[in-house]
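To illustrate the input format used throughout this study, we show a single complete record. The first block contains the structure-token representation of the backbone; no residue identities are included at this stage. The design step must infer an amino acid for every position from geometry alone.
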């Protein structure tokens, strides 16, 4: 089987749904996907899902991605969905580059997303602490933020959208592990603080600051889970996340220590 081309059965389904898509250029593999496979042909991106790609923290659901793109694209925050099928989606290619600098762009982008109407039938990330429910991207890492010249940025790779506390998205973007995996290094303390200063909802920022130890502990556990399965880079990423936890101890653990004899 030619692994450089998308599966033939998916190409047949795509052609049936999009008979107007007939570019002269061949399919090209897109780099960057850690779980799923991506190809581009002309102005179309085809994403084929790994059925074993989910983790305990991050889902990997093509139906959820299709629903999220339909819901979010009209607001200018995601690419347009072009076609979908069992285990795949196709959406408009977005020219630009992955986010590399200026955390204020991401803070405003997530603020816009979290202010949108919610989308029914998505998984709910319920917490023990009180919180509002917002639409979450749930994977706003640098590789999933496209910066476009003279246009607003977009979020791509919507395979794990959810409903829940927007503090989740803040934690994932600020995560030292996720920054290392996708940008090569954690954010500086100044950028971390600037992001929180710029994000528009102060109550969400306050909840993030209160519950950051729990949120980042989950990310560290995810990295350890991936490292145990030999995923490249995740052992180092887990160490970076745990270093943050050492700086910001879990308040529940601290309370237990203070009550110990």
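Output of the design step:
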């Amino acid at each position: 089987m030619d692994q450089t081309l998308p599966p033939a059965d998916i190409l047949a389904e795509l052609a049936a749904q999009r008979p107007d898509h007939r570019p002269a250029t061949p399919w090209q593999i897109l780099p960057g996907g850690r779980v799923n496979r991506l190809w581009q042909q002309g102005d179309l991106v085809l994403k084929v899902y790994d059925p074993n790609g989910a983790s305990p923290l991050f889902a990997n659901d093509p139906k959820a991605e299709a629903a999220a793109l339909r819901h979010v694209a009209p607001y200018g925050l995601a690419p347009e969905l072009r076609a979908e099928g069992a285990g795949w989606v196709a959406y408009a290619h977005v020219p630009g580059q992955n986010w590399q600098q200026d955390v204020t762009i991401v803070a405003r982008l997530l603020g816009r997303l979290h202010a949108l109407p919610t989308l029914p039938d998505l998984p709910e990330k319920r917490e023990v602490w009180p919180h509002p429910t917002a639409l979450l991207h749930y994977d706003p890492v640098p590789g999933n933020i496209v910066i476009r010249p003279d246009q607003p940025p977009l979020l791509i790779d919507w395979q794990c959208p959810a409903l829940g506390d927007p503090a989740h998205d803040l934690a994932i973007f600020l995560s030292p592990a996720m920054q290392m995996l996708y940008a090569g290094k954690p954010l500086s303390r100044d950028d971390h603080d600037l992001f929180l200063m710029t994000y528009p909802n102060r109550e969400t920022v306050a909840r993030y600051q209160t519950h950051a130890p729990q949120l980042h502990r989950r990310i560290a556990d995810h990295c350890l889970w991936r490292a145990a399965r030999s995923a490249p880079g995740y052992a180092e990423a887990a160490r970076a996340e745990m270093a943050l936890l050492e700086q910001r101890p879990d308040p529940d653990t601290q309370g237990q220590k203070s009550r110990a004899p």
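Structural context for interpreting the output: The radius of gyration is 19 Å. The first strand starts at residue 28 and ends at 29.
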